[in-house]
Write a structure and sequence with these properties.
It is an enzyme of class 6 (ligase). The protein is of the alpha/beta class and 672 residues long. It has a domain of 110 residues: ANL, C-terminal domain (GMP Synthetase, Chain A, domain 3, 2-Layer Sandwich), CATH 3.30.300.30. It contains 21 helices and 30 strands. An eight-stranded mixed β-sheet has the order 12-11-8-6-7-14-15-23, sandwiched between helices. The protein has a seven-stranded mixed β-sheet with strand order 5-4-17-16-18-19-20, with helices on both faces. A hairpin with a 5-residue loop joins strand 24 and strand 25. 51% of the residues are buried. The chain binds adenosine-5'-monophosphate-propyl ester (PRX).
């Protein structure tokens, strides 16, 4: 057990987790209502929570806009001159040489950029409820675009820049986006990637897209952009295009845009964004989040868990103190804006809290494997939030690299995305945190929007455990009938009460919403659902120990976590099958020391086709083409048969057990 120092406890908003948790659990709605009152609303709500199976709606009747809280209200306070973002770009050979570009935005400056871009979007005809796809690398315009959409009530759909044209196409098509925002080219380590080309390919058959906005990331080429003539896409691609498609330079549009833009009044339950994520079946789902509940949940969680030096009064004067961290926090989150961590904890929550967020454009190994530690030293980072896969990769390189840097500014460390093994936890704690920074191992999901199971800095920690549920969150571990399992027993991780930033729905697919989260086939909870009881199925398995600490084991469905990236077995299998030589494929996740899990595929080839190393290389290429480099398979076996149920479903569980030399479990439904 790791006990926090008195200093940490003193500076924590939360001093006594247990007492506060139990007090709040008596009346979670009153708790969230009080938190909501710390934020700005255009009109108060009539009802804190409306639960109509299977939908929970928070702050019903209330009107707000998350951007009103993230930016507008700070314009009237001292926060206006505080830095919202410090962005450091990766070094790249350019006219400027090898220097790393730095861009800083105060809250005032960020607001101006957001207002201008919101006006640009409006001038292109974007209206409340329209969808806008953002396909950008880790540059400030990624955040500006999201905020500009939210400001005018448009729904943003950010697609991670590592996804391929096919993956992007599916996401644009499902969302029926009007606009796509991307770069022309951008640096990625020593390479230059052409995201415009990817977008061209993705949208060639999509008629909903009317405009593409291109951001120039590489300054060295800016000279030729003067008076840029949007080249006819028809000429560029030599293929038919949807009518009326226009390309624009971001900087051209912005140079003419007005700096004042009013913020759209939204219902608390109106959609804010769509974020596609992989599930166990079929195509990725568009997870839909809204303005009101989401803003309340993300606001509070980061503040309490990272002890963020906040501009808002805390909820409970008896247990928390306002603004008692004497230093100004520099909060460094290494996530990409393309994932939920970037949405909730780089964009919305830090801004609502009036914090200063530090972002680095490149990967932790570029231009050298000490870059994160160098940046922490240089910018005096106080709070650092990253993923286990990165910690494990950096740990392997030894202590000498981090030991070269002064990391004494650090106060709190965080982890997210996959289970962190105790060895990596202890290395992070000792070598990076010098045994004085508590580690916040935050368990949550794209769907939950906010931290759900997480320590607070004053908690006693066990390396490898994500501690206990956040205030107002009721978690449990259940068996396949929905009954709670005894301590130290593996169970399905479920949530038993609605929480404010839970997903509103699966976009265009309410059936999927119901079947994934409330009537999941793994669990027979008809009794509960009949009574309209709330039981959210997370798709994870976990154990709880004698002290009530949660130990997350991992996904219990066919979702694979590769370096924290969420990939569906079914999605990977269709990518394999899209190759002309493949008849059938089954994909499983195998443990990997650094990546957490790696992709292993079992492939049946079409009649007459011989397996070879060349074909394996081709298949890897095919999967990268269909999904993107994050989905690169590690192992491919050519096989004659796959274990199936009598109804023809591939039993991946059996393949996995066989592969790992584990007992096969119940095979009574196995056909062959
Ligand atoms: O399996 C859990 C794992 O990540 C899944 C959610 O993935 P995604 O929606 O991409 O969101 C990742 C960022 C929140 C979960 O179902 N996961 C996330 N955080 C943890 C974790 N597993 C163990 N420990 C965590 N701290």
């Amino acid at each position: 057990m790791i006990i926090p120092s008195d200093e940490i406890v003193d500076k924590s908003y939360i001093k006594d987790y247990e007492k506060l948790y139990h007090d709040i659990q008596e009346h979670p709605e009153a708790f969230w209502e009080n938190i909501a009152k710390e934020l700005s609303w255009f009109k108060p709500w009539n009802k804190v929570l409306e639960w109509k199976y299977p939908y929970a709606r928070w702050f019903v009747g209330g009107q707000c806009n998350i951007v009103n809280n993230a930016l507008d209200r700070h314009q009237k306070t001292a926060v206006k001159d505080k830095l919202a973002y410090i962005w450091v770009g990766q070094p790249f050979d350019s006219a400027q040489g090898k220097e790393m570009p730095v861009r800083k935005f105060t809250y005032g400056e960020l607001n101006t950029e957001v207002c201008k871009f919101a006006n640009v979007l409006k001038s292109l005809g974007v209206r409340k409820g329209d969808r806008v796809t953002i396909y950008l690398p880790r540059i400030p315009e990624q955040y500006i675009s999201m905020l500009a959409c939210a400001k005018i009530g448009a729904i943003h759909s950010v697609v991670f820049s590592g996804f391929s044209a096919d993956a992007l196409k599916n996401r644009i098509m499902d969302a029926q986006s009007k606009i796509v925002i991307t770069t022309d080219k951008y640096p990625y380590k020593d390479k230059v990637l052409d995201s415009k080309k990817t977008v061209d390919e993705a949208i060639k058959d999509i008629s909903s897209v009317k405009d593409v906005i291109l951001i120039k990331r590489l300054k060295s080429e800016a000279a030729d952009s003067n008076g840029f003539q949007p080249a006819s896409p028809k000429l560029q691609r030599g293929e038919p295009i949807s009518t009326g498609l226009n390309y624009h330079w971001y900087h051209d549009l912005m140079s003419q845009a007005d700096t004042i833009c009013s913020t759209e009044i939204m219902e608390a339950t109106d959609p804010l964004f769509l974020l596609y994520t992989s599930g166990s079946t079929g195509k990725p789902k568009g997870i839909l989040h809204g303005h009101g509940g989401y803003m309340v949940g993300v606001y509070l969680t980061l503040k309490y868990v990272f002890n963020l030096d906040s501009q808002n009064q805390p909820v409970n004067q008896a247990t928390s103190q306002p603004g008692n961290n004497s230093i100004d926090d520099i909060y460094f989150c290494t996530a990409d804006g393309g994932w939920i961590t970037g949405h909730s904890y780089i964009v919305y929550s830090p801004l609502i809290n009036g914090a200063t967020t530090f972002v680095y454009e490149a990967t932790p190994d570029y231009p050298h494997p000490g870059i994160w530690w160098e940046l922490i030293q240089k910018y005096k980072v106080t709070k650092f939030y990253t993923a286990p896969t990165a910690i494990r990769a950096l740990m392997r390189l030894g202590d000498e690299i981090p030991n070269k840097y002064d990391l004494s500014s650090l106060k709190i460390l965080g982890s997210v995305g996959e289970p962190i093994n105790p060895e990596a936890w202890l290395w992070y704690y000792k070598t990076i945190g010098k045994e004085k920074c508590p580690i916040m191992d935050t368990w949550w999901q794209t769907e939950t929007g906010m931290f759900m199971i997480t320590p607070v800095p004053s908690a006693n920690l066990k390396p490898g455990s994500a501690f206990k549920p956040f205030f107002g969150v009721e978690a449990d571990l259940v068996d396949d009938k929905g009954n709670s399992v005894p301590v130290n027993t593996q169970g399905f991780l479920v949530i038993k009460k609605p929480w404010p930033s839970m997903l509103l729905d699966v976009y265009n697919n309410p059936k999927k919403y119901l079947e994934t989260y409330f009537e999941n086939e793994s669990i027979n909870n008809q009794q509960l659902t009949k009574n309209n009881q709330f039981l959210y199925f997370s798709g994870d398995s976990a154990k709880k120990d004698d002290d009530g600490y949660y130990w997350i084991i991992g996904r219990n469905d066919d979702v694979i976590k590769v370096s924290g990236h969420r990939l569906g077995s079914a999605e990977l299998e269709s990518a394999f099958v899209s190759h002309p030589s493949v008849a059938e494929a089954a994909v499983i996740g195998k443990p990997d020391e650094v990546k957490g899990e790696k992709i292993k595929a079992f492939v049946i080839l079409k009649k007459g086709i011989q397996g070879s190393d060349e074909l394996k290389t081709e298949l890897v290429k095919q999967v990268r083409k269909m999904i993107g480099p994050i989905a690169t398979p590690d192992e491919i076996d050519f096989v004659d048969k796959l274990p199936k149920t009598r109804s023809g479903k591939i039993m991946r569980r059996v393949l996995k057990a066989q592969e790992l030399g584990q007992p096969l479990g119940d095979t009574s439904t196995l056909e062959n």
